[in-house]
Amino acid sequence: KLVKHFGWTWIGAVNSDSDYGNNGMASFLEAAHKEGICVEYSEAFYRTNPRSRIQRVADVIRRSTAMVVVAFTSSGDLRILLEELSLKPSPPRQWIGSESWVTDPDMLRFSFCAGAIGVGIEKSVIPGLRDFLLDLSPSTVSASPLLTEFWENAFNCRLGKSAATDTTVCDGTENIQTLQTPYTDTSQLRITNMVYKAVYAIAHAIHNAVCQKTNATTQCYKFTRIESKEVLSQLRKVNFSQNGYDVSFDANGDPVATYELVNWQKSESGSIGLVTVGRYDASLPVGQEFRINRKLTWVNGGTQVPVSVCSDSCPPGTRKVLQKGKPICCYDCIPCPEGEISNDTDSPDCFSCPKEFWPNAEKDTCLPKPVEFLSFSEVLGIILTVFSVGGAC
Predict the structure, then answer these.
(1) Which DSSP state fits 304?
(2) Measured distance CA(233)–CA(228) in Å, rounded
């Protein structure tokens, strides 16, 4: 729907050779075919493939005529491909990303992908989480091997142990609030927010399973043993709002498909940032699912939507003729034969004008034939008048 929304009918596609990539791309190709989108190539690869395989995929992208590339890959796989593409200059490409890589901050270092657009899991600020993460005392850290390893890596010191030659002993003055790491950045929580909502959904389901509402009071049997089937049954019925987002499930157990539209935009300093430019909500009426509320920047910093078609539209006065052995998006524009016109863009056929009309020079409309009268002062008019009068006599 995103590709169709921007009018791209000629695209390239790459995907991870894994369950995630293969299943995602299979679904995409099926939907693209229904929407009349043609795929110039579809390549699968994996990060452990030989370099020759990665080079072949990169060469396919370089040689292709499709401006738009849809990448249904994991971050680790696409990183390998983009590193290969960066070795040799490639024609500009408009990248369309799946949620796995398009919101990954580590991928923003590939500046030639500036203008990329994709769908991301909705982010949210979880109340109290940052304070919770920053409220680590030395005693709490020492009691957890996991936190100990994190602390030592973050501050490059050894906790309660004799220091090695290249490290020092943590002296307790380390302040986690001064750290500038992904751990302390809670502004881009996407999958974390999904887990947050999932926990609340199960909590609501358990609450509904053990509580009974009678009149104005609710009686909860907290020590009742409940089966997982009961929780699942209640989970299908939950409908609540948490942290600004609604949570409910349909008959198939799926939540409403809602995504952020994200765009890689260059700042004035030249660095690439992740900007939320709109939203996709499958619960809205057909044709209104996309809401774009900010200007997008495209490949090479352009402000106009790039064009990615196999053949330009055939203007009125011509007809489409499919190119042999090519997808239906590839065709030639043949002028209409004498006496016929076409008055629509991308018309498959030409047709004749009515009896009292003839085509104009551009063969895109029918003009009425002019009615001509003979004058008495013309030679032919005089001759015909003489014959008519003589014949009457």
Answers:
(1) S
(2) 9
Supply 214's token pair: 């009678």
154-199: pLDDT as tens digits? 888 888 765 555 678 887 778 888 888 878 888 778 888 889 999 9
Count of beta carbons in the 10 Å neighbourhood of residue 235: 19
Phi then psi for residue 167, to 5 deg, are -135, 165
pTM of the predicted model, to two decimals? 0.78
| E strand segments, the chain | 10-16, 38-45, 68-72, 94-97, 117-120, 157-158, 168-169, 211-214, 217-220, 239-242, 245-248, 258-266, 272-281, 290-292, 318-322, 331-335, 340-341, 351-352, 357-359, 366-368
What CA–CA distance (Å, rounded) separates 349 from 287? 29
Pair of tokens at residue 370: 């002019």
CA–CA dist 100, 74 (Å, integer): 5
How far apart CA 19 and CA 52 sit, in angstroms, is: 23
Tens-place pLDDT, residues 324-372: 888 888 999 999 998 899 989 889 999 999 888 989 988 989 999 888 8
CA distances from 356 to 83, 362, 363, 368, 370 (A): 66, 18, 16, 6, 9
One-letter identity of residue 282: A
Tens of pLDDT, residues 271-298: 898 999 999 988 888 888 888 888 899 9
Residues 6+ apart with CB under 8 A from 269: none
Which tokens in the block code for residue 41?
């190539």
* Cβ–Cβ < 8 Å for 125, 242: no
- H or E stretch at 34: helix 19-34
Angle at 299 between CA 296 and CA 303, to 5 degrees: 40
**Strand-pair partners of 43:** 14
